[in-house]
Amino acid sequence: MFRKNHKDRNLKKIFQWEDYLNWHKMSPQQKINFKRACLFPFFALFIYNFLSKFTYAILLLVFIYFIIRFKNRKKISK
């Protein structure tokens, strides 16, 4: 029914913890990816704290923006 192509494919490693254990043998791109993976939870925590503190202020600004946009919708502007 389906023809399978048995050519060898280069698969990208997703979980490569064995490579991360030896920092000196890592390529610069792997080092950058590891740093990003380690810093992502801190970035997510920062975003969560920011949004939890300023949710109502952000919603108020968006609401005011849409009210002004709705009132100016009938005016002709160039």
General description of the model:
By secondary structure, the protein is mostly helical. The protein has one domain. The chain is 62% helix and 0% strand. It is elongated, with a radius of gyration of 25 Å. The mean pLDDT is 83.
Report the uncertain regions.
none
Largest sheet: none
Gross morphology: elongated
Portion in beta strands:
under 5%
The tally of helices reads: 2
Number of domains: 1
Helix/strand structural class: mainly alpha
What is the CA-based Rg, rounded? 25 Å
N-to-C CA distance: 61 Å
- Kindly report the average pLDDT value: 83
Taken in chain order, the helices and strands follow as HH
Secondary-structure map with pairings?
Layout: H1 17-20, H2 28-71
Brief overview, please?
The protein is mainly α.
Top keywords for this entry?
single chain; 0% strand; elongated; 78 residues; mainly alpha
